[in-house]
Structure formats: structure tokens, C-alpha cells
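queue> holo job accepted (D-ribose)
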Amino acid sequence: MRVGIGNDHAAVNFKNILKEYLEGKGYEVIDYGSTDPQAKDDYPDFGQAVAEALMAGRIDKGVVICGTGVGISLAANKVPGIRCGVCSDTATARLIVQHNNANMISLGERIVGVELAKDILDSFFSAEFEGGRHARRVDKITAIEEKYNK
Ligand code: RB5
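queue> job finished
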């Protein structure tokens, strides 16, 4: 699986650790993120880069990280077809896939510890979409996108 990872300056440390962690698990990790913790760069640029790579088929899943995980997820979710959830616990990381068919996950370096972040990624990557009634709801999210992206 090809995983795109993106981060702003607030999450360079986390990105480096989690990238190595995912590579150790056998994922091919493509880095779209900032490499300079001193840079005053802007999280939307990195959320957009990972989201567009995913929708273009260059990666299979996306992981984005900023200070809180919120800003970069908001940017990623503006790209049609992206379903990115901010996660600070493993249950949410599993459920955003099982119920929401999330194709990206977002983390906050200033919010969660690094060991928890690894467990969150494990939950996200091992979960599968359950379909059924959840597919109907996800389809409604897509319908909202289509209404406003004509
Ligand atoms: C950067 O200081 C910070 O605002 C950003 O990483 C993120 O937390 C925004 O949501």
C-alpha cells in the first residue's frame, strides 16, 4: 500500500517518527510534508497535496499531521472524494473507516503522544469499511459534495 504523509512545520518530528514506523510495517510512504520545524509554512498546502495525490491515484491512503490535526484535515476535506477524520483515540480511528469509509486520517502532534499515534495508525490501517447502511450515509456525503461542486 502506498501511503501519502503530509505535515506542516508543527508536525515535522511526528512525521519523521510515523513515517519510519509505517515503513517498518512495509508500507511505501510518500512524503508531501514540511521538513523544517522553523518554517512558518501553511498547513492547507500539505493537506491539499496529500488529498490531491490520493484522488489522482498516486497513493492509496493519506496521513496528515499538524499541531491539532484540525486545520490540515479541514483543507484535505475540501478536495472532493476525501473523507479525512481527526483522531485522538484508537476507537475513532477504527470507526472512521468502518462507518465513514475514511480514506485519510489526521493527527495533532500537540495533542497526542507518539505511542498513541502509532496505535491510532494501526487501528486506521487494519479497519475495513462495513458498507450496508453506512454506504447509504457516505453516499449522502458525496451528494453534498456534488451539489456544491457543479
Ligand atoms: C500552526 O501553528 C498550527 O496552527 C497548525 O499546525 C494547526 O494546529 C492548525 O490547525
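queue> The mean pLDDT is 98.
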